[in-house]
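A quick aside before the break. I want you to see a complete sequence-to-structure record at least once, exactly as it would be stored in a machine-readable document. Don't worry about memorizing anything.
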Amino acid sequence: MKYLFVLSAFFVYTHSTAQLKLTRLSDSSYVFTTWQLYVSKTDSALYPANGFIKITSAGVLLIDTPWDTTQFQPLLDSIEKRFNSQVKWVISTHSHADRTAGLDYYKSKGIATYTSFSTRKICEERGEPQPEFVFYHDTVFQLGTTKVQTFFPGAGHTPDNIVIWFPEEKILYGGCFVKSVEATDIGNRADANFGTWEMSVKLVERTFKHPKWIIPGHQSWESKKSLKHTRKLIRKS
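That is the input. The structure line, written in tokens, reads:
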């Protein structure tokens, strides 16, 4: 199914199937969304998780892996078919399964997988999928002509959460560190640090000014007020 709709005053192309959706932000930047059954004490429903696709002159970068394990290969197939390019790198932004579930699969495909050292350590301790490579500090990757900056703002959603900045397009990929304005609560609290999370958000706001897009780990990214909304939810928690 293909259709056009307006998002934040920009025309955006979206291609979707039942479990996988690719949404265009620019010629080289797309959000991919997969769904997983989320069960709470009162309800159960399919819940969306966002990841990011960056097309570079040297290949394709994925930020985070699909949450739905059935979509690991369909995502690769969709990218190769649509962009005539292959995924060369994956960076996962923290240790939860909605970010890292596909690391072992993508390693098996010869794709270079990365996380911070802290994320790999947590995944190793929990016996969960781990990357092939790690970075120990905030790092700028040069992928062809594209720069990609990783940034650890401090503990928040998890002790290891990072955000990703694409300076040429001023896109901030926040992952689960950032809550969509759709969110009515802070979500998964299992590894959260409420003593530092709000300060960490403020550091991101000071470091990456005037982003064109802010992509949260779940739900919509229409609003640029998601960082402010995240701070509000933290204070309510």
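Two observations worth writing down. The longest strand covers residues 44-56. Confidence is low (pLDDT under 50) at residues 1-16. We'll return to this after the break.
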